[in-house]
Amino acid sequence: MLTMKILLLLCMSSCFTAKKSPYDKSEGVLVLTDKNYDVAVAEFDYLLVYFYAPWCGHCKALGPEFVKAGQMLKEKDSVIKLGKVDGTEETELLDKHSVTGYPALKLYRKGQLVPYTGGRMAPEMVAWLEKKIGPPSKVL
Fold first, then answer.
1. Which residues are catalytic, by number?
2. In the chain, which ranges are E strands?
3. Which residues contact 35 (CB under 8 A, 6 or more apart)?
């Protein structure tokens, strides 16, 4: 009986000491806020951030494609992470990152901002991202 109590206490203490991730996830995509945005940019070598508004028609079209892109990247065991920011909730992030319209996509490569010039469909996003994080091309 004493062994059982000790085991139970150890199990409970490990639950309380386990490190909680600073990120919530929605459909496999990191939910970024003013509290964790800079942490995510610093933590992940490659992070594509999607700024959106729930009422925006273009965002409603892009959102499912963004989730699909995340699923495609996960299936490939990619190091690229996807995050999203609800601009109606995180207005200070919009100002800080010069977001003037929705939807907006921003890629951070090792903390440096790279302008997003890819497509709006999942396969196009994934292809563009893989090209941007790949090794530099060599002159033959």
1. 56-59
2. 24-26, 29-31, 46-52, 80-86, 104-109, 112-115
3. 22
Residue with tokens 């995050």: 83
> Which residues of the chain fall below pLDDT 70?
1-20, 136-138
Instruction: Give pLDDT tens digits for 48-60.
Output: 999 999 999 999 9
Residues 94 and 83 sit within 8 Å (Cβ to Cβ)? no
Provide the pLDDT for residue 138: 67
Whole-number pLDDT of residue 10: 46
In contact, 72 and 65? CB cutoff 8 Å: no
Q: Are 106 and 48 in contact (CB under 8 A)?
A: yes
Residue 130: strand, helix, or coil: helix
